[in-house]
DNA sequence: AGTTTACTTTCCAAAGC
DNA sequence: GCTTTAAAAAGTAAACT
């Protein structure tokens, strides 16, 4: 009887320690990505839900913590790409993506696809581009999306190409390399999306 | 308009069977030309047939898995070749061991571009998985028939998980009618 | 700048770790 | 869970020319 009781306390303590570790990891990753406190709190709430639903079993705490932060950013409309969260996590990108899909499905998070426009303010700001370029990029994204160009394309690559096109149109040119660095995509992807977009825009 | 069902093409058939007899894979690997056997990596011996093209995984238990065939007839033909090869090695194999098709992968074309964003929201986020950052296809799990469809922006699709060719036809019909109901196929 | 190769996703069986 | 096998879809990445 005493042994069972001690075991319960031990598991409870271990669970408590694991939860504290997960929450501090979320905080650490969020800090290095410059994610606001309100979003970290959303991530912590999702993590606790995942814990309550017993979704952590068979998965790494760090993996679930990272996925939870990724999901929270999307829910709050300030997405970070898997590339970006993977850069501050000790779990690889593929694992984070798989865990995110599992958690989102099990908790019925019903996440809508990421809108490329949600990346433009942050990317433009990191590139020191004007509001004018940002507005132009937004317009390019809206127009080309209406023409059906977005299906299947990565939101970061799509946003990066629109920003590249907008920077040219507004005479504030940034090189493909500079934009690729900020958006964490390759120059080849920017070229491919850019060609389609300017053609659809009739430029 | 061409019926999307007419564009269905079987791309891969997976089937299992068995010769009801234990095998010494080490000696089979020695005698069978072109056999790949690395028990440290995987317990099955890999044997590839050329006509029709397929890959057979042969296990110590005598059970066999055949993949890569383009039709159910090809699976039977490939396995017939495998059975004959084993017989050449003085291994007893019945006339026609039971062959069970486990999975059929098909491709098809709806003939129009698809707005995957609208489909993801329209068909309801519950049976749909669409993460273009991770994969360009939208994953749609059907209950009847019980298959999984991957829909692409081009209107092309992949259907997998079915046990018979008809499953893919039924799946295409359901997908088409559901997209039409939502006004997402036009 | 553009090409080639390789990897991402879905499915399934097998035996063993 | 993982390992291996096969195949399609289309996008992206890495490594070259």
Walk me through what this model shows:
The complex is a heterodimer of chains A (203) and B (186). With 203 residues, chain A is an all-alpha fold. Chain A has ten helices and no strands. The longest helix of chain A has 32 residues, at 2-33. Chain B is of the alpha+beta class. Chain B has four helices and nine strands. In chain B, strands 2-3-4-1-5-9-8-7-6 form a nine-stranded antiparallel beta sheet, with helices on one face. The mean pLDDT of chain B is 96. Chain B folds into two domains: 15-101, TATA-Binding Protein, CATH 3.30.310; 110-181, TATA-Binding Protein (2-Layer Sandwich), CATH 3.30.310. The A-B interface holds A 81-82, 97, 101, 105, 108, 110-114, 148, 150-156 and B 113-117, 120-121, 125-126, 129-134, 136-137, 152-153. Chain B binds a DNA duplex (17 and 17 nucleotides) through strand 1, strand 3, strand 4, strand 5 and strand 8.
- Main interface by residue count: A-B, 19 and 19 residues
Based on CA atoms alone, the radius of gyration of chain B comes out at 20 Å
How much beta of chain B, percentage-wise?
Answer: 25-35%
CA-based shape of chain A = elongated
According to DSSP, the number of beta strands of chain A is: 0
Q: What structural class do the secondary elements of chain A suggest?
A: mainly alpha
Largest sheet of chain A: none
Largest sheet of chain B: 9 strands, antiparallel
**DSSP helix fraction of chain B:** 25-40%
Number of helices of chain A: 10
Which class best fits the helix and strand makeup of chain B? alpha+beta
CATH superfamily of the largest domain in chain B: TATA-Binding Protein
Low-pLDDT windows of residues of chain B: none
Low-confidence stretches of chain A: none
Shape summary of chain B: elongated
Write down the CATH topology of the largest domain in chain B: TATA-Binding Protein
What percent of residues of chain A adopt helix (DSSP H or I)?
over 70%
The secondary-structure element order of chain B is EHEEEHEHEEEEH
Quaternary organization: heterodimer
């Amino acid at each position: 009887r005493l042994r069972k009781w001690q075991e319960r306390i031990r598991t409870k303590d271990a669970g408590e320690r694991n939860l504290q570790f997960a929450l501090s990891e979320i905080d650490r990753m969020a800090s290095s990505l410059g994610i606001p406190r309100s979003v970290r709190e959303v991530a912590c709430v999702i993590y606790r839900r995942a814990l309550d639903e017993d979704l952590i079993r068979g998965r790494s705490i760090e993996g679930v913590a990272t996925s939870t932060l990724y999901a929270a950013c999307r829910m709050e409309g300030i997405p970070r790409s898997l590339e970006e969260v993977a850069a501050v996590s000790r779990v690889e990108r593929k694992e984070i993506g798989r865990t995110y899909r599992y958690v989102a499905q099990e908790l019925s998070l019903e996440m809508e696809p990421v809108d490329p426009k949600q990346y433009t303010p942050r990317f433009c700001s990191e590139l020191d581009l004007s509001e004018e370029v940002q507005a132009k990029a937004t317009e390019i994204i809206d127009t080309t999306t209406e023409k059906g160009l977005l299906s299947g394309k990565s939101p970061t690559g799509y946003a990066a190409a629109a920003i590249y096109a907008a920077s040219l149109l507004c005479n504030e040119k940034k090189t493909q390399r500079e934009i690729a660095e900020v958006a964490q995509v390759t120059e080849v992807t920017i070229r491919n999306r850019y060609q389609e977009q300017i053609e659809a825009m009739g430029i | 308009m061409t019926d999307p069902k007419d564009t269905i093409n079987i791309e891969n058939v997976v089937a299992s069977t068995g010769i009801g007899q234990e095998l010494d894979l080490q000696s089979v690997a020695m005698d069978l030309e072109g056999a790949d056997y690395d028990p440290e990596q995987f317990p099955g011996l890999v044997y590839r047939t050329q006509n029709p093209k397929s890959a057979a995984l042969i296990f110590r238990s005598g059970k066999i898995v055949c993949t890569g065939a383009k039709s159910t007839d090809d699976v039977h033909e490939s396995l017939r070749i495998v059975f004959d090869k084993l017989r050449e090695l003085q291994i007893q194999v019945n006339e026609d061991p039971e062959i069970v098709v486990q999975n059929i992968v098909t491709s098809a074309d709806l003939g129009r571009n698809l707005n995957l964003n609208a489909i993801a929201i329209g068909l309801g986020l519950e049976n749909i998985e669409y993460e273009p950052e991770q994969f360009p296809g939208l994953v749609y799990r059907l209950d009847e028939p019980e298959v999984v469809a991957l829909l692409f922006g081009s209107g092309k699709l992949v259907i997998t998980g079915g046990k018979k060719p008809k499953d893919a036809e039924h799946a295409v019909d359901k997908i088409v009618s559901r997209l039409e109901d939502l006004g997402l196929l036009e």
